[in-house]
Amino acid sequence: MKKLVLPDAIRALGGDFTFGVATSSFQIEGARELRLDCIWDTFCEQQDTILDQSNGDTACDHYSLWEQDLSMLIELGVDAYRFSIAWPRVVGKDGTLNEVGIQFYENILNFLKQHGKQAFITLYHWDLPQHLEDEGGWLSRDTAYAFADYVGLVVNRLGDQADAYITLNEPFCSGYLGYEIGVHAPGQKNQKAGRQANHILLLAHGLAMQKIRQHAPSVPAGIVLNIHPSYPDSASSADQRAAQMASDYLFHWYLTPILTGSYPALLENLPCDVQPEVVTGDMDIISGKIDFLGLNYYTRAVYRSTNDGWFEEVERNDYPKTEMGWEITPHAFTDLLIGLHQRYVLPPIYITENGAAMADQLESGKVVDVQRIDYFQTHLNALADAIEAGVDIRGYFAWSLMDNFEWALGYSKRFGVVYVDYVTQDRILKDSALAYRDMLYSRS
Ligand code: FCB
Of 116, 147, 259, 311, which sits 20 to 30 A from 373 (CA to CA)? Predict the structure, then answer.
């Protein structure tokens, strides 16, 4: 079996570097009947939204199988588990805590604690309660306040049982994919809506941070952003500008306000009627101190300039690709981390997701996913390069613990280190899980 080798720069950090695996509620839990509907339930019911017409009703049935799944995670020897709480499972329409729902997560926390594992809790991984979407969703300031109320209730209850709180996972996906280009729930296609949703999401993050400080002042808290570093399609100045604009519009749009309290200058180039409605005081709330920044990295993106001076993504085939059609570009991971370190005063960074969908084949009870092992190896090496260059990186979470509902692509893409048979709900550790485990045990 192919092995994973722990790079020296990471080994040298010893216990100061956390290894984990990540999941999210809607993608694995199922048990839809035990929670309120969320925007992804509704989106899945619409025509032509999900590649295989599937939904999250059952998913990996983790709601029933959580103990078995967590035992598997313990076996892997990780230090930490990053999972998300489903807002529609823990808060009723009347805004009160649902005891059955919150107990599910308390059981997970207790289990992790008993085994000496850390819990990184994501408070929003895209499952907005549908009744809030019906009242305006992420276009309405009320949703930001409703989110803060939900976070207040949850953090008041769970307090320092968590080792880290993450407000939002990838507001780019919620705001841009969900409201601007409509490939994610709730499926709106409107530039103004996208920019507005981004702003409300950032506001929700800032308000939630205040609640976390209030109820769990000793627990580190931050946000998770996804980033696909932007490269120009050619050396022309137009393409270089296009790549820069794409990067500001799709990534720094989130990071710059959080770290500096203002949007990238590109905002002023947008027509007034697509700019978000920013109220006095919002930027102060958004830029409250975070203790860490979570980054999800999968691939790079290439852009060229359009005739109207905007940018468009170009499909390139310079590197091998994963089953997502994403180029495998570990060097871009290093460049990205070093570039951010040079541009901003960064808080400590956690890589909160990294991984690959591959064409896994289950044969004689085994999944020999050599390419996924290679992906992890080259990206861990890239991370080690960034650490050697002085970037303060504290941890790495593989996406994902197990195969799951990959949003608009349904169950057609497998990201897990554990294979899930969706008919029997059997779990089979892929070779990548065994390689990850062996690498983690090699630390002691
Ligand atoms: C990220 C999401 C995660 C998963 C991976 C592949 O954007 O946070 O839920 O879908 O991509």
Answer: 116
